[in-house]
Design goal:
The protein is of the alpha/beta class and 177 residues long. Helices cover 56% and strands 11% of the residues. The protein has a single domain, classed as P-loop containing nucleotide triphosphate hydrolases (Rossmann fold). Helix 2 crosses helix 4, helix 3 crosses helix 4 and helix 4 packs parallel to helix 5. It binds shikimate-3-phosphate (S3P). Shikimate-3-phosphate (S3P) binds next to loops.
């Protein structure tokens, strides 16, 4: 199906620790396009890390910035786009992804189990939503979000027991099919 010329080649969604940023970089390299990450866009325009945006301005403000970042990247980034783990919860973003998919776009859900996500998340202080008890926070978050990830996805790829390079390769093959 025809895609708008400025639309992404693929959009990656999934929870923290699913490997979105790494896979976006590897997939972009394989496709010969640029990777982009909405978390990075937000930090760049806010001039501070996401953890500080949460503390200083609150999560609702972060979600506003995120909605704008996603809208703008979907309309202008002709490469591979990784979204922050919670971006799909915004109804406007979900609708925008549905429109992108209806126009032939690929929305890839990187599915992952807690056991494989945990070491990647690293249980550090960088993700404000996982403070306290990161394992149970992650699990609760994934339970709530899995239906949304599945609903927006045109392709589901399990990243358990696969390297990011293998995952990128699998997505590239699916895009060519
Ligand atoms: C969030 C995930 C983070 C970041 C923010 C909120 C979430 O991105 O956008 O901390 O709600 O799951 P990653 O999925 O890249 O960790």
């Amino acid at each position: 199906a025809p895609r708008a010329p400025r639309a992404p080649r693929a959009v990656l969604v999934g929870p923290p620790g699913s490997g979105k940023s790494t896979v976006a970089r590897l997939l972009a390299r394989e496709l010969g396009v640029a990777p982009r990450d909405t978390d990075v866009d937000i930090e760049r325009s806010a001039g501070k890390p996401i953890s500080e945006i949460f503390v200083d301005d609150g999560e609702p403000h972060f979600r506003d910035l995120e909605r704008d970042a996603v809208t703008s990247a979907l309309a202008s980034h002709a490469g591979v786009l990784a979204l922050g783990g919670g971006a799909v919860l915004d109804p406007h973003t979900e609708a925008a992804l549905a429109a992108y998919a209806a126009a032939g776009g690929a929305v890839v859900f990187l599915d992952v189990s807690l056991a494989h996500a945990a070491p990647r998340v690293g249980f550090n202080q960088a993700r404000p939503l996982l403070l306290g008890n990161p394992r149970s926070q992650w699990q609760a978050l994934m339970e709530r979000r899995r239906p949304v990830y599945r609903r927006v996805a045109t392709l589901v790829v399990s990243t358990d027991a696969r390297s990011p390079a293998q995952v990128a390769h699998e997505i590239a093959a699916a895009l060519r099919a």
